[in-house]
Fold this sequence. Notes:
- The structure holds two protein chains of two kinds.
- Chain A is mainly α.
- Helix content of chain A is 75%, strand content 0%.
- In chain A, helix 1 (4-24) runs antiparallel to helix 2 and helix 2 (28-52) packs antiparallel against helix 3.
- The relative contact order of chain A is 0.13.
- Among the domains of chain B are: 1-79, Four Helix Bundle (Hemerythrin (Met), subunit A) (Up-down Bundle), CATH 1.20.120; 132-171.
- Chain B is built from six helices and no strands.
- Chain B has helices at residues 3-24, 28-48, 52-76, 92-111, 129-138, 144-165.
- The longest helix of chain B is centred in the middle third of the chain and has 25 residues, at 52-76.
- Chain B is globular.
- The termini of chain B are far apart.
- Classes of the chains: A mainly alpha, B mainly alpha.
- The interface between A and B is large, with 73 and 92 residues.
Amino acid sequence: MVPLSWYLLLAAALFGIGLFGVLVRRNAIAILLGIELMLNAVNINLVSFWRYSDTLTTMSGQVFSIIVFAVAAAEVSVGLALVISVYRRRNTVIADELDMLKF
Amino acid sequence: MTGAQIIFLVVALFTLGSALMVVTSRNLVHAALWLVSTLFGVAVIYALLNANFIAVVQVVVYIGAIAILFIFAVMLTRRDMRDTGPQMNKSWWAGALVAVLTFAGLASLLSGWSGFSKTAADLPAGFDAISLLGEALVSPEAYVLPFEVASVLLLAALVGAVYVAFNPSKK
């Protein structure tokens, strides 16, 4: 049987990769892709804590991960709508070029 | 090393390799397709954790809806059909440093925790995860309130997304 630590380390590595994508990519859509990776890492943690807990029948971890699914769908739909709206007005999706607030 | 461990390692390497391709590939359509393969790897991880319903939801919702939404957004925001210029900003090394430090910090924090190398007990006989999950989602003693709030949030977000992306100049 696989110990809990392997799942937690996989989730931490996936979170780190997603964080790298959020911090370094210039394209706003690529930043959202990184956020999706981070949300998936959190979900792996929730489900693995559920599986390795002593109270399997309360299903807490699975319920939390389903709510994270809903929040991720809401986040990505609003985020991509914003990106499309910004692209229509500014003709760019590069995060560095969206500097209207800079003076 | 048992068979389950070998399967886990193969799936984990596949997932992490796909995730690395998501953040490093120049072409955004390729990045979105690598995201599909990462999400599929995560779905296999859920199946290995005996969370069958979550695995199916991962395939249907994440791969079927979210990843396709990404591909649509990439195609709607192309200036031309190729990506020009660098895909990463100038201080990418600082981002890599922060990511590696985050991983190292999480790993060291977790390794000091007493339940770190816990192994799972076998599922009890006749354990029906799906009916327990359905009852937990709609039972007033459990999670009916977060469930309803999540559905209202999803509705509000989708109405907001339609409003934000709507183009009034093209009636």
